[in-house]
Write a structure and sequence with these properties.
Elements lengths: L1 E5 L4 H12 L5 E3 L9 H13 L5 E6 L3 H7 L7 E3 L3 H9 L5 E5 L5 H13 L6 H15 L2
Parallel strand pairs: 1-2, 1-3, 3-5, 4-5
The structure holds D-ribose.
Length: 146
């Protein structure tokens, strides 16, 4: 299950991602907004909560630039959110960073690219090995800064 959410700027892109990836068998928990103007940190918290609770394996967040969503998501312990606009980053943030949330900009990306990046994100595994040590160091930073 993939948690997904957007603010008012990302509604159409979120719909496009749900439609494209549902056709490939992915299931979504849609945390809004359906179109009402809203504040992106509220949606980021809802989506990230689904990930940290284990209800959803990953999350996708869409706002105008993806920047506000990524800032908010990365304040939440246990979340490693990656703002992506190219396929190399989408792939390697899974392989090396074990990113569990992807953020996308609806005003900076076309829907075709956004759907492709989302598919790479949900279908790529974490490499582990030496990268796990670095993830553990990120987790240690959370502990130090609680
Ligand atoms: C909303 O107008 C806009 O500020 C928001 O979608 C996002 O781009 C913030 O980072």
């Amino acid at each position: 299950m993939i948690a997904i959410g957007c603010d008012h700027a990302g509604v159409e892109m979120k719909k496009a991602i749900i439609e494209a990836l549902s056709e490939k068998g992915y299931e979504f928990e849609d945390l809004g907004t359906d179109g009402e103007p809203c504040d992106y940190p509220v949606i980021a918290e809802a989506v990230c909560g689904c990930v940290t609770s284990g209800k959803c394996e990953k999350g996708i967040l869409v706002c105008g630039t993806g920047i506000g969503m990524s800032m908010a998501a990365n304040k939440i312990n246990g979340i490693r959110a990656a703002l992506c606009s190219d396929s190399f980053s989408a792939r390697f943030t899974r392989l090396h960073n074990d990113a569990n949330v992807m953020c996308l900009g609806a005003r900076t990306l076309g829907p075709g690219l956004a759907c492709e990046l989302a598919e790479i994100f949900v279908s790529t595994g974490f490499e582990g090995g030496r990268h796990q040590r670095r993830i553990d160091l990120i987790t240690a930073l959370e502990e130090k800064n609680r």
